Fold EcsC family protein.
Amino acid sequence: MQLTDIDFQRLKQAKQLLENPGLAAKITDAIGKPIEQGFALLPKTVSNGIGKVTQMALTKAVDAALFTLKDGANLHSSDKWHKFGVALSGGVGGFFGLSALAIELPISTTIMLRSIADIARSEGEQLSDLATKMACLEVFAFGGQSLDDDQAETGYFAVRTVLANSIAESAQYVATKGFTKEAAPMMVKIVTIVAERFGVQVTQKVAAQAVPAIGAAGGAIINTLFIDHFQDMARGHFVVRGLERKYGQQQIRALYEAIE
Protein backbone atom coordinates (compact mmCIF):
# COMPACT_ATOMS: atom_id res chain seq x y z
CA MET A 1 0.00 0.00 0.00
CA GLN A 2 1.38 3.39 -1.02
CA LEU A 3 1.71 6.15 1.58
CA THR A 4 -0.60 9.12 1.28
CA ASP A 5 1.06 12.49 0.72
CA ILE A 6 0.26 13.48 4.31
CA ASP A 7 1.78 10.31 5.76
CA PHE A 8 4.90 10.65 3.60
CA GLN A 9 5.36 14.22 4.84
CA ARG A 10 4.96 12.98 8.42
CA LEU A 11 7.66 10.37 7.78
CA LYS A 12 9.99 13.05 6.40
CA GLN A 13 9.37 15.24 9.45
CA ALA A 14 9.98 12.26 11.76
CA LYS A 15 13.34 11.56 10.11
CA GLN A 16 14.28 15.22 10.40
CA LEU A 17 13.62 15.04 14.15
CA LEU A 18 15.34 11.70 14.70
CA GLU A 19 18.48 12.39 12.67
CA ASN A 20 18.99 15.97 13.83
CA PRO A 21 22.23 17.12 15.51
CA GLY A 22 22.64 15.63 18.96
CA LEU A 23 22.34 17.25 22.35
CA ALA A 24 25.98 18.41 22.51
CA ALA A 25 25.63 20.45 19.33
CA LYS A 26 22.37 22.00 20.52
CA ILE A 27 23.87 22.99 23.88
CA THR A 28 26.95 24.47 22.20
CA ASP A 29 24.76 26.49 19.83
CA ALA A 30 22.59 27.75 22.70
CA ILE A 31 25.16 28.75 25.32
CA GLY A 32 28.17 29.44 23.09
CA LYS A 33 30.50 27.23 25.10
CA PRO A 34 32.14 24.13 23.66
CA ILE A 35 31.20 20.88 25.40
CA GLU A 36 34.87 19.90 25.35
CA GLN A 37 35.61 22.69 27.84
CA GLY A 38 33.09 21.19 30.21
CA PHE A 39 34.54 17.70 29.81
CA ALA A 40 37.94 19.01 30.89
CA LEU A 41 36.38 20.50 34.02
CA LEU A 42 34.50 17.39 35.11
CA PRO A 43 36.00 15.75 38.21
CA LYS A 44 36.89 12.10 37.61
CA THR A 45 34.61 11.05 40.44
CA VAL A 46 31.67 12.62 38.60
CA SER A 47 32.66 11.19 35.21
CA ASN A 48 33.07 7.70 36.64
CA GLY A 49 29.81 7.88 38.57
CA ILE A 50 27.54 9.12 35.77
CA GLY A 51 26.81 5.57 34.57
CA LYS A 52 25.52 4.49 37.97
CA VAL A 53 23.50 7.67 38.46
CA THR A 54 21.99 7.33 34.97
CA GLN A 55 20.92 3.73 35.54
CA MET A 56 19.45 4.66 38.93
CA ALA A 57 17.59 7.59 37.37
CA LEU A 58 16.04 5.40 34.66
CA THR A 59 15.05 2.72 37.17
CA LYS A 60 13.33 5.25 39.42
CA ALA A 61 11.67 6.92 36.43
CA VAL A 62 10.20 3.61 35.25
CA ASP A 63 8.73 2.95 38.68
CA ALA A 64 7.45 6.50 39.20
CA ALA A 65 6.21 7.41 35.73
CA LEU A 66 5.95 4.76 33.07
CA PHE A 67 3.81 2.19 34.82
CA THR A 68 1.48 4.67 36.52
CA LEU A 69 0.19 6.48 33.42
CA LYS A 70 -3.19 5.53 31.99
CA ASP A 71 -4.58 5.27 28.49
CA GLY A 72 -6.52 8.23 27.21
CA ALA A 73 -7.76 9.99 24.14
CA ASN A 74 -5.51 13.05 24.38
CA LEU A 75 -4.94 14.57 20.95
CA HIS A 76 -2.21 16.90 22.17
CA SER A 77 0.66 16.26 24.56
CA SER A 78 1.55 18.69 27.34
CA ASP A 79 5.08 19.40 26.12
CA LYS A 80 5.35 22.90 27.61
CA TRP A 81 4.33 21.83 31.12
CA HIS A 82 6.88 19.04 31.11
CA LYS A 83 9.56 21.46 29.87
CA PHE A 84 8.70 23.81 32.72
CA GLY A 85 9.10 21.02 35.28
CA VAL A 86 12.46 19.91 33.90
CA ALA A 87 13.68 23.52 33.65
CA LEU A 88 12.76 24.04 37.29
CA SER A 89 14.67 20.95 38.40
CA GLY A 90 17.61 22.04 36.24
CA GLY A 91 17.60 25.47 37.83
CA VAL A 92 17.73 23.96 41.31
CA GLY A 93 20.42 21.50 40.21
CA GLY A 94 22.45 24.31 38.61
CA PHE A 95 22.25 26.33 41.81
CA PHE A 96 23.68 23.51 43.94
CA GLY A 97 26.18 22.37 41.30
CA LEU A 98 27.35 18.91 40.26
CA SER A 99 26.85 17.51 43.76
CA ALA A 100 23.08 17.66 43.15
CA LEU A 101 23.20 15.37 40.09
CA ALA A 102 22.10 12.26 41.99
CA ILE A 103 19.00 14.13 43.18
CA GLU A 104 18.23 16.23 40.11
CA LEU A 105 18.69 13.59 37.37
CA PRO A 106 16.06 11.08 38.65
CA ILE A 107 13.54 13.94 38.93
CA SER A 108 14.21 15.31 35.45
CA THR A 109 14.32 11.80 33.95
CA THR A 110 10.94 10.95 35.49
CA ILE A 111 9.40 14.13 34.09
CA MET A 112 10.93 13.39 30.67
CA LEU A 113 9.62 9.82 30.70
CA ARG A 114 6.13 11.08 31.52
CA SER A 115 6.45 13.52 28.63
CA ILE A 116 7.58 10.72 26.31
CA ALA A 117 4.58 8.61 27.33
CA ASP A 118 2.30 11.61 26.88
CA ILE A 119 3.61 12.06 23.33
CA ALA A 120 3.14 8.34 22.68
CA ARG A 121 -0.48 8.60 23.81
CA SER A 122 -1.05 11.64 21.56
CA GLU A 123 0.22 9.58 18.60
CA GLY A 124 -2.35 6.85 19.20
CA GLU A 125 -0.30 4.46 21.36
CA GLN A 126 -1.97 2.47 24.12
CA LEU A 127 0.01 2.96 27.32
CA SER A 128 -1.40 -0.25 28.77
CA ASP A 129 0.39 -2.14 25.97
CA LEU A 130 3.70 -3.57 27.13
CA ALA A 131 5.29 -2.85 23.74
CA THR A 132 4.41 0.84 24.15
CA LYS A 133 6.00 0.95 27.61
CA MET A 134 9.18 -0.56 26.19
CA ALA A 135 9.08 1.88 23.26
CA CYS A 136 8.88 4.80 25.70
CA LEU A 137 11.97 3.59 27.51
CA GLU A 138 13.67 3.00 24.16
CA VAL A 139 13.48 6.73 23.34
CA PHE A 140 16.33 7.45 25.78
CA ALA A 141 18.63 5.40 23.54
CA PHE A 142 18.06 7.71 20.57
CA GLY A 143 20.57 10.52 20.59
CA GLY A 144 20.56 11.99 17.13
CA GLN A 145 23.94 12.84 15.65
CA SER A 146 26.66 13.86 18.10
CA LEU A 147 29.59 16.23 17.55
CA ASP A 148 31.99 13.34 16.99
CA ASP A 149 29.55 11.02 15.29
CA ASP A 150 31.16 8.24 13.26
CA GLN A 151 27.81 6.94 11.98
CA ALA A 152 28.31 3.60 13.77
CA GLU A 153 25.08 2.41 15.39
CA THR A 154 23.77 5.95 15.73
CA GLY A 155 21.07 6.09 13.06
CA TYR A 156 17.51 5.62 14.27
CA PHE A 157 16.90 2.17 12.79
CA ALA A 158 20.45 1.04 13.61
CA VAL A 159 19.81 1.72 17.30
CA ARG A 160 16.40 0.03 17.14
CA THR A 161 18.03 -3.04 15.64
CA VAL A 162 20.63 -3.16 18.41
CA LEU A 163 17.91 -2.92 21.07
CA ALA A 164 15.36 -5.20 19.38
CA ASN A 165 16.44 -8.58 20.76
CA SER A 166 16.82 -7.37 24.33
CA ILE A 167 13.50 -5.54 24.27
CA ALA A 168 11.68 -8.52 22.76
CA GLU A 169 13.21 -10.87 25.33
CA SER A 170 12.34 -8.53 28.22
CA ALA A 171 8.81 -7.95 26.94
CA GLN A 172 8.15 -11.66 26.61
CA TYR A 173 9.49 -12.37 30.08
CA VAL A 174 7.53 -9.54 31.70
CA ALA A 175 4.37 -10.55 29.82
CA THR A 176 4.68 -14.01 31.35
CA LYS A 177 5.75 -13.04 34.87
CA GLY A 178 4.14 -9.62 35.15
CA PHE A 179 5.86 -6.72 36.89
CA THR A 180 6.98 -8.80 39.84
CA LYS A 181 10.27 -9.45 41.57
CA GLU A 182 10.76 -12.45 39.28
CA ALA A 183 10.70 -10.14 36.24
CA ALA A 184 13.00 -7.57 37.82
CA PRO A 185 16.25 -8.98 36.35
CA MET A 186 14.90 -8.60 32.81
CA MET A 187 13.88 -5.01 33.46
CA VAL A 188 17.33 -4.34 34.88
CA LYS A 189 18.82 -5.76 31.68
CA ILE A 190 16.89 -3.46 29.33
CA VAL A 191 17.39 -0.45 31.61
CA THR A 192 21.14 -1.14 31.64
CA ILE A 193 21.31 -1.28 27.85
CA VAL A 194 19.32 1.93 27.42
CA ALA A 195 21.29 3.64 30.22
CA GLU A 196 24.57 3.08 28.36
CA ARG A 197 23.30 5.21 25.47
CA PHE A 198 21.33 7.68 27.58
CA GLY A 199 24.47 8.20 29.67
CA VAL A 200 26.17 9.85 26.67
CA GLN A 201 23.58 12.65 26.69
CA VAL A 202 23.69 12.89 30.48
CA THR A 203 27.48 13.31 30.36
CA GLN A 204 27.11 16.08 27.76
CA LYS A 205 24.50 17.82 29.93
CA VAL A 206 26.68 17.57 33.05
CA ALA A 207 29.75 18.74 31.13
CA ALA A 208 27.89 21.86 29.99
CA GLN A 209 26.78 22.58 33.55
CA ALA A 210 30.39 22.25 34.71
CA VAL A 211 31.40 25.33 32.71
CA PRO A 212 31.92 28.32 35.05
CA ALA A 213 29.18 30.96 35.19
CA ILE A 214 26.49 28.57 33.96
CA GLY A 215 24.75 28.58 37.36
CA ALA A 216 21.04 28.13 38.02
CA ALA A 217 19.85 30.00 34.92
CA GLY A 218 22.17 27.95 32.72
CA GLY A 219 21.02 24.75 34.41
CA ALA A 220 17.42 25.60 33.53
CA ILE A 221 18.37 26.35 29.91
CA ILE A 222 20.38 23.15 29.54
CA ASN A 223 17.58 21.05 31.03
CA THR A 224 15.10 22.68 28.66
CA LEU A 225 17.33 21.69 25.74
CA PHE A 226 17.67 18.24 27.33
CA ILE A 227 13.92 17.54 27.40
CA ASP A 228 13.34 19.28 24.06
CA HIS A 229 15.85 16.87 22.53
CA PHE A 230 14.06 13.78 23.84
CA GLN A 231 10.62 15.17 23.04
CA ASP A 232 11.83 15.41 19.44
CA MET A 233 13.12 11.84 19.61
CA ALA A 234 9.80 10.68 21.06
CA ARG A 235 7.68 12.50 18.49
CA GLY A 236 9.68 11.08 15.60
CA HIS A 237 9.74 7.58 17.13
CA PHE A 238 6.00 7.32 17.69
CA VAL A 239 5.15 8.82 14.30
CA VAL A 240 7.30 6.09 12.72
CA ARG A 241 5.67 3.39 14.89
CA GLY A 242 2.21 4.63 13.91
CA LEU A 243 3.10 4.48 10.22
CA GLU A 244 4.57 1.01 10.70
CA ARG A 245 1.28 -0.21 12.12
CA LYS A 246 -0.52 1.23 9.10
CA TYR A 247 1.85 0.27 6.27
CA GLY A 248 4.20 -2.36 7.68
CA GLN A 249 7.70 -2.10 9.14
CA GLN A 250 9.65 -3.05 6.02
CA GLN A 251 7.99 -0.48 3.79
CA ILE A 252 8.38 2.34 6.30
CA ARG A 253 12.02 1.52 6.96
CA ALA A 254 12.82 1.40 3.24
CA LEU A 255 11.13 4.76 2.62
CA TYR A 256 12.76 6.29 5.73
CA GLU A 257 16.24 5.27 4.62
CA ALA A 258 15.59 6.52 1.08
CA ILE A 259 14.75 10.03 2.31
CA GLU A 260 17.74 12.36 2.08
